[in-house]
Amino acid sequence: MIHKSRAIILKSRPSGQFSTENLAFADKSTGPLAPDEVLVQTKFFSVDPYMRNRMNDVKSYVEPYALEQPITGDAAGLVLESRAPDFKPDEWVTGVMPWQEYTVMPGRYLHKIADRDVSPTLYLGLLGLTGLTAYFGLLDIGKPVSGETVVVSGAAGAVGSIAGQIARIKGCHTIGIAGSDEKCSYLTEKLGFSGTINYKSRPNIRKQLRGVCPAGVDVYFDNVGGEISDSVMFYLNNFARIVLCGQISLYDTNRLFTGPRLLAQMIIHRVQMQGFIVYDYRERYAEAREQLYRWLKEGKLISQETILEGFEKLPQALTGLFTGENIGKQIVKV
Amino acid sequence: MIHKSRAIILKSRPSGQFSTENLAFADKSTGPLAPDEVLVQTKFFSVDPYMRNRMNDVKSYVEPYALEQPITGDAAGLVLESRAPDFKPDEWVTGVMPWQEYTVMPGRYLHKIADRDVSPTLYLGLLGLTGLTAYFGLLDIGKPVSGETVVVSGAAGAVGSIAGQIARIKGCHTIGIAGSDEKCSYLTEKLGFSGTINYKSRPNIRKQLRGVCPAGVDVYFDNVGGEISDSVMFYLNNFARIVLCGQISLYDTNRLFTGPRLLAQMIIHRVQMQGFIVYDYRERYAEAREQLYRWLKEGKLISQETILEGFEKLPQALTGLFTGENIGKQIVKV
Questions:
Q1: How far apart are the first and last CA of chain A?
Q2: CB proximity under 8 Å: A 25-64 to B
Q3: Of A66, A163, B107, B263, which one's alpha carbon is 20 to 30 angstroms from that of A184?
Q4: What is the ipTM of this complex?
């Protein structure tokens, strides 16, 4: 069967700030299935900051998006037809899929959602790459020890909100940095953070940090980079660990931001900074997912999602990540 | 016996660039010895970049120098008198001593120079904290593997020249960045570096790096920081290690330097950056010294020293570190 499908393509590479103008809607028809192919009706799209980087024509750990082709990203959907032996109609699947309403995928690129009593959206968030990123970044690189102070930037974001909760589970004094009072209240009241800083409400975040981190900072889980990180650099304890997960404050421009050179702080305090990509932990996904699922079921982890409805909302959901409109995982439901 | 002694004291804290004007000569007399004290005639002074930082009134891993008091640093000298059971006249000792011609030290702060067939100056350089810093920084943090590319900044300096030679011993493609053609020739011709860059002779060090590191950079041993490090950031291979040993290009000022924010490179390439202080390896000094001594005796390691003669040369030897006047270890002989 042929399905007419809307798609979202990269119309132009952003020069400077990314806007929805860089994207365009297009019509893609899905043809008949070849052997081992599966027709998926996409139901949930994961909207993630790294997508912004893929719009640049720059070599990175993933290929740049091609012009005039659909954006791709994590998504979850229902199998409509299948010529792949492992998949049957009405099964939920996830995978990296184009931003299309219907898509034909080789079966080997799809993962069946295990028969669990949770929403499929969790496989894009807490039980997907988002949760895995928080898990490996915090535990493998940050190595938090009970009683230590963990600071998370972008703490109300998808990865940050999970990283902070895992730090709390591990018995750490957990401080979240976020961009609104609403987000900050959410972090302390719902997610159990020990304290927060709204970096937009007060000019001097260094002073605030001193207040909420009286014992200094042992682990800094960094999603944002830039000035927020500069401030944290001054409170690092000896043998602190910096988990370089993202630098979202610096993504959305062609300009090369400048900032103070503070690496001497890392020498004085023997700090380790480590950049990481979740894909390198592929062989341990199952272990991590199991633990995250258990924490979820025990009520220790809350999965917060911001869901916009409608395929046509995808572009604004993506720009919204950079203006701070989401709390937790940003998803678009079709 | 009382010895009249010249001393060099911190007259004023540098505001901006450090100059010999911040130091002054003073007269200190050494009094008679108390029990367990040793009178040392200082013969060789180690002149090191970290001393500049101790002139600032800033908390760090060592105390700031006190105003009107003698500068202290590593030194080697001869025992003249001793009331400490472990030391006898005419023995060579090392330790952290004031910049004085004669000094009275508690015996517990002195180390006897082992009866080896090498110059006492080696215990300030190759077999002292300098060599130990290069050894632990390169091997423990850099973890170079044969065939990898190791870039050393400040490569003609005391630590850099040893770090680069150890990288060469480990079978690495070793590139040194230094500030004159003379230094660069020395590195390739005498110390066996694979290639060099004179960062002062050409404007575009990034382009030069591409030429001498065709396979990218696996280990960056950083003594200087600043713009040189910025260039290296663009050639880091996946899973590269950055050894943060020093940031000498940023020390000699009160100004907070700024530079491009390049940490996203560390995420893309999963880079680890680690600041370190040699003191943390105290328990392994003996092991490292043994290995360095063996390499020296086998002719695999060359210890290069720049020696100025005369106590009164100490201030200019120290400022000279920041204008690039030394090759290898800077020592003042009295």
A1: 20
A2: 60-61
A3: B263
A4: 0.93
